[in-house]
C-alpha cells in the first residue's frame, strides 16, 4: 500500500509505549531530542492488571534523573527486606534497608499501571505524547537511518523516517522479528499464577517473602492499600483463563503456613515465562530494549527493572550522538553492557526459580543449609541484597568481579546521583506515610556532588592533608576545568566533607573520575598532570571523529 499520510521525521522513533518506551521517551525529551513514540494499543493496560510490581533501588536512582523516582516512592509501598522461608521456617532475611550507598534503601511496590501512569504524566510534562493505535508493520534501514511503515487506526499507512529506532515493543517484538534477531535462552519454562489480595494475618508488610515447599514455590509482595501480590508456580495453563481465587488461598495455606488467610483477590492472572535474550540488542540504526530484548524469570521481580535500565543506558548515548558530542561508536557499548548485565541476572533468577522448585530430599537440605549459612555469614546482606537491589550492577570489563570500594573501575556504578526533583524532600521525608518503616530520606550528605544529566561529571578527589603518593602533582578543580574546557564535562570536587559512603567509594588516593550521565564510571586517572592529560585524551577519543578537539591544556602545561 502506498503511504497516504504525510511523511513523518524524528530523531528517534520509539516503537512501544510500555514502561521502557515511555521512560526512554522522557530521558530523550529531557535531553532535547525530537522523539516520536507510537503504540499499537488504544490505551495503556488498565487496572487491575498489575503485572510488574517491584521497582528496585537502582531503578529508582535512574528514574530520579527524569524526575519520577520521588513520585513512585510516594505512590508505592516500601519494602525493606527479602525473607527466605522453607516449609514455613524463616531461613534468613536480606536487608535492603542496610544498603548504605543509595538514597533509596527500599523497593517501591506498586502496580505496573501506576508506574506507567506516572511515567506518562512525566512524558506529558516534558511535551511528549504517545500516538495510540499506531502499529509498526515493517522497517528498512539505510545509511541515513530507518524508514518504518506505520499503520494508523484509520487504516492509513505512513512511511516514517527516523535517524534511530528503538523497539520497546514487548516480548513479541515486531522490531526484533523484522530485524531477524534470534531470541533464545535458558530452559526455564514455568507458569506463575498471580493474585493481588488482602491477607488476614501476620504477613510482614515490609518484607518480600520467598516460600519454598515440597508443594511448589510461593512469593508474597506487600502492595499499597493493604494488598499483597501472591505469586505461585502452577502447571501450565491458558493465560486467558486466570486461576480461581481458591487456588491461591490454598497455596498460601500450604506453602506459607503462618502468614495468614487470603482475602478476596482484586485481580488474578497467570503468565508463562520462557527465559529469552536477544542475540544482539543493536542492528545498525535500530535497538531493542525491555522485553523486546529479554524475558527473564519473574522470580526476582527484576524484568521490568532491567528494561528500564536499558532505557537509561541508551538515552544519553543516543542524545550525545545526535547532538554531536559523542562519536557513534559509543552506541556499540549498549549491546555489550546491557547484554552482559541481563545475561547475569537471567542466570541468577533462573537458578533462583529452580531452587524454588526443589521438592525435597538432599537438594532441599543443601539449599536450606546454604541459605541459612548465607544469612549467618552476612552474605545475604552484603551480596544478595545489593544484587536484588541492582546497586551492584557494573559494566566493568571484568564485571563478574565485584566492585571494590576505594578502587573504582570503568563501568562501576558510583553513588553519585542526579539532583532530586523539587518535591523530593517532602515525599521522602514522611516514610511512615508510605507504609514502610522510617528510613533516611537520603544517605548522601549535602556536600556530595550531583551528577550532571547531560555530559560527563569529572570528580576531583582531593583529600586534605598529605595528598597521596610522594611526588604526585595534585591538581585543583580549576586546573581540571581549564583542561576540559570545550568538552561535554563539568568538574566537581569531592573533598573530605563528602558523605562517608562516597569517600569509601573513592578511597584515600587523589584521583580523577569521569562519570557518565547514568552514574557509571567512564574513566579513572590519578590526579596528576599526566593523569589529567590521559583523561582529556580519553574524552577527546569519545568525540565525533570529524571534530577537531582543542589541544589538552595539560599537555601544553
Ligand atoms: C501477567 C503478567 C505479570 C507480570 N508480572 C511481572 C512481575 O511480577 N515482575 C516483573 O518484573 N515483570 C512482570 N511482568 C513482565 C513485565 O510486565 C514486563 O517486563 C514489562 O511490561 C516490560 O515492559 P516493556 O515496556 O519492555 O514492554 P511492554 O510493557 O510489553 O510494552 C510493549 C508495548 O509495545 C506495544 N507494541 C507491541 N507491538 C507493537 C507494534 N508492532 N507497534 C507498535 N506498538 C507495539 C504494546 O502495545 C505495548 O504497549 C509480567 C507480565 C505479565 C504479562
Largest sheet features: 8 strands, mixed
What name is given to the CATH topology of the largest domain? FAD/NAD(P)-binding domain
Q: Please tally the helical runs, counting DSSP H or I stretches of 4 or more residues.
A: 15
Global structural class: alpha+beta
- Which regions have little confidence, pLDDT < 50, spanning 5+ residues? 424-445, 467-474, 547-557
> Which class of the largest domain in CATH terms?
Alpha Beta
Total individual domains: 3
Number of strands: 26
Architecture of the largest domain in CATH?
A: 3-Layer(bba) Sandwich
The fraction of residues in strands falls at 25-35%
Task: Describe, in plain words, how this protein is organized in 3D.
This protein has 557 residues and is α+β, with helices and mostly antiparallel strands. The protein folds into 3 domains: 9-51 and 111-185 and 276-353, FAD/NAD(P)-binding domain (3-Layer(bba) Sandwich); 189-274, Alpha-Beta Plaits (2-Layer Sandwich); 445-556, 3-Layer(aba) Sandwich (Glutaredoxin). Helix content is 30%, strand content 25%. The chain is built from 15 helices and 26 strands. The strands form 5 sheets. Strands 1, 2, 8, 9, 10, 11, 20 and 21 form an 8-stranded mixed β-sheet that branches. Strand 1, helix 1 and strand 2 (35-39) form a beta-alpha-beta unit. Helix 1 packs parallel to helix 4 (112-125) and helix 2 (57-64) crosses helix 3 (69-75). Flavin-adenine dinucleotide binds at residues 15-21, 38-41, 51-53, 112, 135-136, 168-170, 174, 194, 269, 271, 290-291, 298, 301-304, 307.
